[in-house]
Every structure is written in structure tokens, then in C-alpha cells.
Design brief:
Blueprint: H1 3-10, E1 12-15, H2 21-44, E2 59-63, H3 73-76, H4 79-89, E3 100-110, E4 133-139, E5 150-152, E6 173-175, E7 182-186, E8 191-192, E9 204-211, H5 226-229, H6 234-239
Antiparallel strand pairs: 1-7, 2-3, 3-9, 4-7, 4-9, 5-6, 5-8
Length: 271
């Protein structure tokens, strides 16, 4: 398969069978247990509409997977995925070498009756002539028309406008991918989660990777517990964007976990 042509022309690519059913079930178990812990806090947090924390009655959601379990990093840096991201996010930068990083990561499972999402794009710059944000959707269950498989409009990443709310486009298709597969797409591609009609499980990890100048969704340097941070390799720290932090002053060029007036240096996940 010509990966480059698929991405450039259609805006998306499906990589089937990257992880086993056993791996999928492992991640789902972690997500289910974390959902039970954090769902009440998400439901109460009405100040974070931008991250969808205001109403979780129609889906299970777990945010910031990087601080929940080290095994998620295996997916963050899966070599087959990074190979595709390299040409999506490195090319066009200075010497084709400016690093990209994981700017957002979460997991979602729509519940029965979830009406699905409007078609939308995530990069907020429609029709830009190069990819600045790429999304990777890991299917931990089979995606079907009845449980809310992702709707996409091939080639829409090239259109210099946003999708119209509520409109059904003739070109729309469904990404009915199998458990253990990954859907990679330019974040400018019009897409949206479908409605879950049959109530079957449809857990998906949504990972967003961005060029160095894109603002992260959360402060990963400050919200990673020290016991996880100390186990991260330099490559994993780079992927989380730790080396993108601005130096404190002209005498300090070493990036480090700096104390914050809002977040304690030794971050502890709330119970």
C-alpha cells in the first residue's frame, strides 16, 4: 500500500491488526477500572466544556492515559504508527526534523442511545496545505454501524471550510475497523463518532499528535505522577513534549519539572 498517497488524497489510513485481542482486553480492563474511579469527578467538572467534561451521561470517558498506566505508552509509540506520523508531521519542518509530540490522549466508549457527534475537524485551520495535527484512533472493540463507528468524509481535509452541522454528505463513509486496528487521519478531515444503537462496547483510544508549535491539551509535565515520570525513557519524555517547555531564563537551558503555583511538583491523581 502507498501510505503517502492514501494520506495525501483521502486524508486517512487504516492499519489493521496491530495489537492482539488480549492486548485490547488488557487496555479495556484498565479503562473500565479508571472510569469507575473518575466518572464522578468528570460529571461534577462543569468548567471544562472544551474537553467534554460537562456531560458524561452518554459515554464512558477516561482522560490523560499517560498518567494512568505505563502500558499505554506502548500504543503512544507503536513503531508502525510512528512511521506514518513521521511523514505526516516531520516533513515540511526545518530540515524535516522538528519533533512532533502527543498533545492529547483519552479514551471513549459511547453508551446505548448516544446520538453521535457532528462532523467536525480538530485542527481548527481548515484547508491548510500540510498536516499540523494527526489523530490516531485505536479500536479496542470492533467498530460497526450499530455501535457508533467513526464517520469520515474522504478528502475533506483539503476543503477550506468546516462541515455544516447536521448535514449528511454523499461522500461520507463509516470506518468499520476491527478490534486491534488503528485509524490514522489528518485532524482537518471531517469526522465524527456515530450513534450507538445496539449498546455494544466500542472503546477507542483517541491520540492526537501535533507539530511542536501547537498548544497541548493539558500540562503533561505537571500532571504526571513522579513514579511514572521516573520510569520514562528520554524518547518517551520527548514524545510527551517535555523538551518543548520554554527555558526559565537566558541562563537556564535545561528543561525540567518545575514547581507550579497551581499544580504540585509531586503530582498525585485525585481519588
Amino acid at each position: 500500500m502507498d501510505y503517502r498517497k492514501e494520506i495525501e488524497e483521502k486524508g486517512f489510513l487504516i492499519l489493521p491488526d496491530l495489537i492482539s485481542n488480549q492486548d485490547c482486553n488488557h487496555y479495556k480492563s484498565i479503562l473500565e477500572s479508571n472510569y469507575e474511579i473518575y466518572a464522578p469527578s468528570y460529571a461534577k467538572n462543569s468548567a471544562s466544556d472544551a474537553h467534554g467534561l460537562d456531560n458524561k451521561s452518554m459515554e464512558k470517558t477516561v482522560y490523560n492515559l499517560h498518567n494512568k498506566d505505563l502500558s499505554f505508552y506502548e500504543l503512544f509509540e507503536h513503531p508502525e504508527v510512528l512511521k506514518i506520523l513521521d511523514f505526516m508531521l516531520l516533513e515540511g519542518s526545518y530540515k524535516d526534523a522538528e519533533p512532533y509530540y502527543l498533545y492529547n490522549n483519552c479514551a471513549r466508549c459511547p453508551l446505548q442511545g448516544n446520538p453521535g457527534q457532528q462532523l467536525h475537524s480538530d485542527s481548527r485551520l481548515p484547508g491548510i496545505n500540510y498536516c499540523i495535527v494527526a489523530n490516531v484512533l485505536w479500536a479496542l472493540d470492533d467498530f460497526t454501524n450499530d455501535n457508533g463507528s467513526t464517520r469520515i468524509v474522504p478528502g475533506s481535509h483539503k476543503i477550506k471550510e468546516f462541515a455544516e452541522d447536521g448535514k449528511i454528505y454523499d461522500e461520507e463513509i463509516r470506518a468499520n475497523i476491527k478490534k486491534g486496528s488503528a485509524l490514522i487521519f489528518d485532524a482537518n478531515l471531517w469526522h465524527g463518532g456515530g450513534a450507538n444503537i445496539d449498546g455494544s462496547s466500542r472503546w477507542a483510544l483517541t491520540l492526537g499528535y501535533a507539530r511542536w508549535f501547537i498548544k497541548p491539551a493539558f500540562d503533561y509535565m505537571q500532571n504526571t505522577p513522579i513514579e511514572i515520570y521516573e520510569q520514562l525513557s528520554p524518547e518517551r519524555k520527548r514524545l510527551m513534549g517535555y523538551d518543548l517547555a520554554a527555558p526559565k531564563d537566558e541562563f537556564t537551558r535545561v528543561r525540567s519539572r518545575a514547581p507550579s503555583p497551581e499544580v504540585p511538583e509531586n503530582y498525585v491523581l485525585p481519588n
